[in-house]
Amino acid sequence: MDIQFLILIVFAYFLGAVPFGFLIGKALGKDLRLLGSGNIGATNATRALGKKWGYLCLLLDVLKGLIPMMLVPMMDLVDAKTASPASLALWLLVGCAAVLGHVFPVYLKFKGGKGVATSLGIVLGLWPYFTFCGIGAFVIWLVTLLIWRTVSLSSILAAISFPITLTALTIILESWEIEQLWPLIAVASGMAMLIVVRHKTNINRLLDGSETKIGKKD
Q: At what angle do helices 116-125 and 85-103 cross, to 10 degrees?
């Protein structure tokens, strides 16, 4: 493995592990782990701290995934159009390190968020393959949120749709070769599975009808 990739992977993990929601809450005299769902992500931050702080948390969590991903092409380590499967896999590994940092932060004894916002940062940073699929996933997230007003359900459905859309586009578009892009499909599937697993408690609440909806208090 290229030493620059290794450095970026380590950097991405420790950046991803920075618990911005927790830090914002602490700055306001509150511990998100003891409020609402107990999650340190943007959704719980919005409910417990207010919209402006929740939006700030969302932005910072997205940047945790976006910044490491953008550094890869900026350092001329990868050209998306001509990259080999191995190079694409390493690029994705940088982003996955950021998500793992968010989900399992060393600073909080490896108890972090669900990884949705940080995964969005990876999606935005891997142009054009993940970006196009991310737009589709966002549309699904928004439409389902407007219909059912449940953030967790929308996040799960958007996550599941992402690898499906990527696979479909790879089959349909002649310029997207499965031989090159299979690492992206594999990692996208893994990211979706991780997000779904991290929503286990939300899924249980969805099944028993107790999951909180937008506009209602916990």
A: 150
- Torsion over CA: 216, 25, 14, 138 (sign): positive
Hey, CA dihedral for 63, 91, 154, 169, is it positive or negative?
positive
Q: What is the pLDDT of residues 121-161, one digit of tens each?
A: 999 999 889 998 989 998 999 999 999 999 899 999 999 99
What are 81-116's pLDDT values in tens digits? Answer: 888 999 999 999 999 999 999 999 999 999 999 888
Contact (Cβ atoms closer than 8 angstroms) between residue 188 and residue 133: yes
* Cα 191-153-197 angle, rounded to 5 deg: 40
Helix axis angle for 51-74 and 85-103, nearest 10°, is 150
Could you tell me the sign of the dihedral formed by the alpha carbons of 99, 32, 135, 73, in that order?
negative
Q: Are residues 129 and 166 in contact, defined by beta-carbon separation less than 8 angstroms?
A: yes
Query: The tokens of 167 are what?
Result: 């696979």
For the chain, which residues make up each domain, given as ranges? Answer: 3-77+85-208
Would you say 113 and 195 are in contact if contact means Cβ atoms under 8 Å apart?
A: no
Task: Report pTM.
Answer: 0.82
Compute how many other C-beta atoms are within 10 angstroms of the C-beta atom of residue 82: 8
C-alpha dihedral (114, 117, 119, 125), degrees to nearest 10: -170
